[in-house]
């Protein structure tokens, strides 16, 4: 986070076009795409040359989620994607995860937030004692039933 946003944007994508030209980073393309991420994810910053460490934690998180969802990911492992962000940021992140899912990406959501699990999941797999003990349909499950499964209780 000690680099400007445009440099943080290319992490993990530094060899992909248009972020690079051979072994050289295409700063203009990285800066332009960083501006898109800033706008699309409502990252509050004066510009893409600002150090990422100068942003609030929520804005850092929105930028990182935006960076990782850029392109066409086939699989997204989202661990606590909205932990610590405000309601507006939560809605933006949820919306982009749902769009990725609708576009065909597999989304593995790991969350302690029951509202998040019920809002975003097609299925909820409960792990207890190192094993999957239950796979639930969130539209047919109550938070109480999920809580029981989380304690290892067997359903009747």
Detail the topology: elements first, then pairings.
Layout: H1 5-10, E1 20-21, E2 24-25, H2 27-40, H3 57-69, E3 75-79, H4 87-102, E4 106-110, H5 114-120, E5 124-128, E6 131-136, H6 143-150
Parallel strand pairs: 3-4
Antiparallel strand pairs: 1-2, 5-6
Describe the model:
One of its GO terms (molecular function) is ATP binding. InterPro entries: ABC_carbohydrate_import_ATPase, P-loop_NTPase. Keywords: ATP-binding, Nucleotide-binding, Repeat, Transport. This protein is an alpha+beta fold and 156 residues long. It has a domain at 1-71. Helices cover 41% and strands 16% of the residues. The chain has six helices and six strands; from the N terminus they run αββααβαβαββα. It has helices at 5-10, 27-40, 57-69, 87-102, 114-120, 143-150, and strands at 20-21, 24-25, 75-79, 106-110, 124-128, 131-136. The strands form three sheets. It has a two-stranded antiparallel sheet with strand order 1-2. A two-stranded parallel ribbon has the order 3-4. Strand 3, helix 4 and strand 4 (106-110) form a beta-alpha-beta unit. The termini are far apart. 24% of the residues are buried.
Oligomer: single chain
Uncertain runs are none
Structural class: alpha+beta
Beta-strand proportion: 15-25%
Q: How would a crystallographer describe the biggest sheet?
A: 2 strands, antiparallel
Number of strands: 6
Intertermini distance: 50 Å
What Rg do the Cα atoms give?
A: 18 Å
Q: Provide the succession of SSEs.
A: HEEHHEHEHEEH
Provide mean pLDDT, rounded.
Answer: 90
Number of helices: 6
GO molecular function, one term: ATP binding
Keywords: ATP-binding, Nucleotide-binding, Repeat, Transport
